[in-house]
Structure formats: structure tokens, C-alpha cells
Amino acid sequence: MARTARRTFASLIGGVLLLLALGLALGVFIAQQPNAEVLALQVRTERAALLQERQTLEAERTQADSQFNVAQRDLLIERAARAELESLLARLQAELGRQQDQLAFFENLLPPGPQGSLDIRALDVQKQTDGLHYRVLLMRSGKNTKRFEGMLQFVGVGHCLDAAQVLEQRIVLQPLVAESALESGVALNAAQIEALRAPLRLDFAQFQRGQGLLAVPQGFALKSVTVRVLAGDIVLASKVVDL
Fold it and tell me: Fewer beta carbons below 10 Å: N end or C end of the chain?
């Protein structure tokens, strides 16, 4: 009986000691774990960091989209400009081909002159209310690599309507703009006068077309116009048109 009581007491003491050990271990575990406020602070910090990273990524994506849109727009502009240049090149090539065909036609139409000779191949002069309109085509025969530089000169033959006697006169006709500037009374230097006469200047290798308006003195009746091609003071070609 006494032995049984001792065993029961020993078992009770062992159970109490086990409970104390478990309580101590649980207390140590709880003490090592963060409390609710610390956990909430950590969650908020990590959430803020994730939001900041998300905003950074969205900003980088927006910038990349903007750069892509700019690059795409520049590419479209470049393609449009290239298409326009290709279209312009095609038109210029077509115009060049047409002019070459016309040049070949004129060369076949008229007999070729000596190598390098210059001819007035076509000429049209018409009276207008504001002056004398002209169109001219000049060509050189053969294959010329050296450019020709010279001047056109228009010499009008006629008479003054208010003269007592009808006497034939010759006058050199100037471009309408140049003549108006010269008659305005404003002092012009040699360079300005040459610039006003630029429509009469010639500079070409194979052919050159020109057109413009010539001033006719008031009260002067033109009978004919002689077109001359000058190299300095030397007349290389001339043609007369009756009016």
C-alpha cells in the first residue's frame, strides 16, 4: 500500500515537472516571436517598398512607351519623306527623259553643224500689252563638255509714231524689270544692273531654253526683232523675227 502511494506521488511530481518544462519552453518561444505591432510595421514597410518599385516600373514603362511612340512617328515621317523623294526623283527622271527625247528630235530635225557650233533652234516672239514676250531654244552641236557663257541680245527695228518723218531706228531691248528699274531714276551700280539683266545671261553645255518679257519704249512701233547670241562682242548666231 505504501509502495503504491510512493509511485503515485512520484508520477504526480514527474507530471508537474513536465508541465513546468513545457510552460518554460512555450514562454521562451513566445518571447522570441515578434508582437502584432512589429508584424504590422514590417507588412506596411514591405508594402510601401513594393508600391515604390511598382511606381518605378510603371514610370519606366511609360518612358519606354513614349520613346517607342516617338521612334515610330519618326519612322513614319522618314518613310513619308522617302516616298516623296522617290516620287520627286521619278518625276525628274521622267522630265529628263522627255527633254532628252525632245533634244534628240531637234537634233534629228535639223542638220548638225560643225562640232561645237551654236544655233538658235527655236524662237517665238509675241507682242503683249505689257511688253514683248519671247521664248528661245539654243543648242550646240556635238558632244560639248566645256560650258558656253554669253548673253542674249534683242535688237528691235521700227520707228517712233510721233516723229515728223518715219525714220527706221534700231534699239536694244532690255528685260522689262531691268528697264523699269533704270527708268525709275534710282542710282544702280554695275553689279545691280547685271543682276537685272540676268534673264539674258547664257550658261550651258548642250542646250538652254529661255523666256521673258522685253520692254518696248512707249510710242515706238516695232517692225522686227533680231535675236543675237553674243560671246563678249562677237555675234555667234542671230535670227530675225518679223512682227
Answer: N
